[in-house]
Write a sequence for this structure.
């Protein structure tokens, strides 16, 4: 459930061209209510945090539907191989 909420929030943030760094990686800086207030102030369209999250959910679902239409399947919905392989670090001697 938390992953879905995070996906929806990130889709909403991306849709308003806000910086994910500004909103905080752990959603500690701006939350959906703050972002909704900013969107309302900028566009004149009144919305709240729940409305913004619903928008993010719709955006995420359209993105997934597009990827499915283009042939992406469950097996493709994963992280790159480099996230699963530990790379040995090379130690550099201190002078």
């Amino acid at each position: 459930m938390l992953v879905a909420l995070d996906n929806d929030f990130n889709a909403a943030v991306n849709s308003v061209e806000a910086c994910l760094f500004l909103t905080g990686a752990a959603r500690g800086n701006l939350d959906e209510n703050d972002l909704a207030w900013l969107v309302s102030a900028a566009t004149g369209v009144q919305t709240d945090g729940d409305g913004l999250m619903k928008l993010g959910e719709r955006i995420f679902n359209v993105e997934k539907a597009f990827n499915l239409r283009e042939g992406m399947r469950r097996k493709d919905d994963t992280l790159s191989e480099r996230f699963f392989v530990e790379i040995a670090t090379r130690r550099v001697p201190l002078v």
